[in-house]
Amino acid sequence: MQNTRTCKSCGAQSTRQEDFSNLSLNLAPGGSVQQMLQDYLMETELDFHCECGGNKSGQQSTFATLPKVLMLHLKRFQFTPFLQLEKLSDPIDLYRELLVTSAQADGWYSLASVISHLGSGGNEGHYVSDGMHPDTQLDDPADLWLAFNDTKVTESTGAAVCKQRQRTAYVLFYQRRVREQDYQPDTRL
Ligand SMILES: [Zn+2]
Q1: CA 147 to ligand 1 center in whole angstroms
Q2: Which end of the chain has fewer CB atoms surrounding its CB within 10 Å, N or C?
Q3: Which CATH superfamily does the domain covering 22-39+66-179 fall into?
C-alpha cells in the first residue's frame, strides 16, 4: 500500500510504502465489502505540523500493487469501554465480485474462500471455512464449494455461502480474475 500525507495548508506531500499480508476493515453493518474497502481507502484527517505552519494533514492509502489473492479481515471483535472483548454479529452484504482500484490499474476479484466465526462471544466460538472447490473455475455454473467444519466436509455453493455467512464472515479471500487468454487453472494461485 502507498500512504500519502498531504498538508491541508500548502499541499506538501510525503509518501511511504508499506507491505501488508491482509487489510483489516471496519465493519459497516448492512454494508457491502466493496463499501468497507472504499471506507478504508478514504482520506482521513490527522494532526501534523508542517514546515508551512499548518497543522492539519490528510492521509490516504492506495494500492501500490494489486495482489493475486486479497485477504480482507473484518473487525468483528472489539473492546467495550470496560475492556470486555465483544463480537459484532451485524450482517454484511456478501457478493462474489469485488473491484479494487489502484493508480496503475483496476482489478476484478472473485470471492474464493471465507473463514467464519460462529458463536456470540469474544472469548469463545468456533471457526469454519468455506472454499471454492479446486475443480471449479471462477465462472463455472456448477459453482461447487466445500464447507470445512473440523473433520466434516460438506458440499455447498458460492451463492449459499454468501447468504449463509452474512453475520459470521470474518476473513475473506478474493482471487484476482485473469484475462481469458492468460488463464492457467493450475497456476492461478
Ligand atoms: Zn504545509
Answers
A1: 53
A2: C
A3: Cysteine proteinases (3.90.70.10)
| Angle made by CA atoms 24, 26, 30, in degrees to the nearest 5 | 130
Q: Which residue(s) pair with 71 in the sheet?
A: 173
How many Cβ atoms from other residues are within 10 Å of residue 130's Cβ?
A: 26
* Length of the chain, in residues: 189
Distance 6 CA to ligand 1 centre (A): 8
User: Which tens digits make up the pLDDT trace of 55-110?
Assistant: 999 999 999 999 999 999 999 999 999 998 999 999 999 999 999 998 888 999 99
Each residue's pLDDT tens digit, 117-175 = 999 888 889 999 999 998 887 777 788 999 999 999 999 999 999 999 999 999 999 99
Q: How many other CB atoms are found less than 10 A from the CB of residue 161?
A: 24
Query: Coil, helix or strand for 186?
Result: helix
3-state SS, one letter per residue, for 165-177: CCCCEEEEEEEEC
- Which cell numbers hold the place of 96? 462474489
CB 69 within 8 A of CB 174: yes
Encoded amino acid at 126, one letter? H
Task: Return the domain boundaries, the chain.
Answer: 22-39+66-179
